[in-house]
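This section describes the prediction task in plain terms. A model, or a person checking by hand, is given the sequence of a single protein chain and must write out its three-dimensional structure as a string of tokens. No templates, partner chains or ligands are provided. The sample shown here is typical of the held-out split.
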Amino acid sequence: MIIDVHGHLSAPADLYAYKAGLLSHRGAHGRGKTHMSDDQLRDALYAPQPSFGNVSHMDHLDEAGIDIQIISPRPYQAMHSEQPAFLVDWFTEETNDIIHRVSQIEPRFKGMAGLPQSMDTSPEHWMKEARRTVEQLGFVGVMLNPDPCEGAAQPPSLADRFWYPVWEALCELDVPALIHSAASKPPARESYSLHFIQEETLAVDALTRSKVFDDFPDLKIIVSHGGGAIPYQRGRYFPGAVRNGRNFEDALRKLYYDSCLYTSDSIELLLKAVGTDRVLFGSEKPGTGSAKNPETGRWYDDIKLLIDDIEWLQDDQRTALFEGNARALFNL
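The expected answer:
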């Protein structure tokens, strides 16, 4: 079995028309609601999509052999920095409700909640939605944006006590968080993709230097896209860690990482850096990587084939990567 821990919602355009309406009237017309039928939600999963290589979400999963996919909101749609903050609440809750409905229509999906991470509210407020979705809707995790400011300001580091209410709630709920950046609004030197990598890198750097896992030993954190740059630049951290009486490799292994990297050698380096027991299969399929490699004819985001190309992996390690690690972490 293959369990994909990094998928995103494929929704009808009506969901994003609802978002556009909220942003246009800034709440003056009330919260409103989407009015999508089950057939519309199903069509969004089965209809070919131009942005996914003219292939449907479900066909992508079938072709890649993915049996279960954990889906969260499309990160670039999260609008965490919009104001007033209640718009973020409304859109997040509506999106999570759609994810819940989709998981009922197609049991292949499990829900991972988006959080209403406006910096005009508090982490305690954000985690009310985590509790609602996990306790009432059966979601198995949450997606956490380390930059709710979306590039417009400097948010607190994940090492900061600002985030402690998030860690407390995750431990109480016994669900993991997937670290995944969202939009980056200002026109800056970093591109959209680089913003994701930068934020994942900052997350790993902060958490490995912090006392978070001393204070929350049961905390379960997955860093998307292979952990940003840190696993591949880990040698730079070794001397400083030794001088401070620490082992940086041990610090790296307090986190988990997904395999959403688009070359086999990158995945192989991640596995060697943190161990096969700390990596979960993730493809973000369909999404950014849903284009075909002209040299091989494969989808760039067919991560299973890239893992299959790593010859030294033993059968038990492959089973852990594809299924076992996710089952244990998400209590599946």
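For orientation: The chain has a mean pLDDT of 95.
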